[in-house]
């Protein structure tokens, strides 16, 4: 669809976690690529949110297992006729590299927690207006450095989390690509689906000219969506076409 909006909704906790990480990483990239110091000032709150999310004690081990399972699945694909062997081999090598990086990685966020500069900012950043120059003169000094120097520091901080964030990005890519799009209609603004197999993610593309958005609820075996009017916030009663993509849950 042209001029449409993509909505994604996780149907299990693993995918929900991956999508939260992806959103924070994208926000960090946007801040990093900003041209002015204020964009880099805004980066710290998001960086600490990502650290808090990734510091779950079990995430590194869980993700390493998921990478191994993906590697086994992709290896099986190599025996299928008509597949692009070069592309699959590149994917195998990427998964192998990510698996090794996860095993060698320190506890997520530990390096950043030991950074005294970041620790000073972390103590103030959640206070309303707490990261002003008079509160954090060291931060003000850092913001006065060249953009190239600030980018170098930001990249070094993000690199400590890269084994996790890169592996999660690839897992989401595999989830999204193992699906196809279908045209569906929400009758009087409602749509219900019972799945034959456990689902991980649903995606909806909805044309913007309808002036509505979907409210989705459900789990890996069953979900429903209700179209809501963006102007009034009330339930839609029109028959509304949309595109639907469902990704199955992996072991």
TrEMBL record:
Gene3D superfamilies: YacF-like, YacF-like domains. GO terms for biological process: division septum assembly; FtsZ-dependent cytokinesis. InterPro entries: ZapD (IPR009777), ZapD_C (IPR027462), ZapD_sf (IPR036268). Its main location: cytoplasm. It comes from the Bacteria. Pfam families: ZapD. GO terms for cellular component: cell division site; cytoplasm. Interacts with FtsZ. Belongs to the ZapD family. This is Cell division protein ZapD. It comes from Ferrimonas sediminicola.
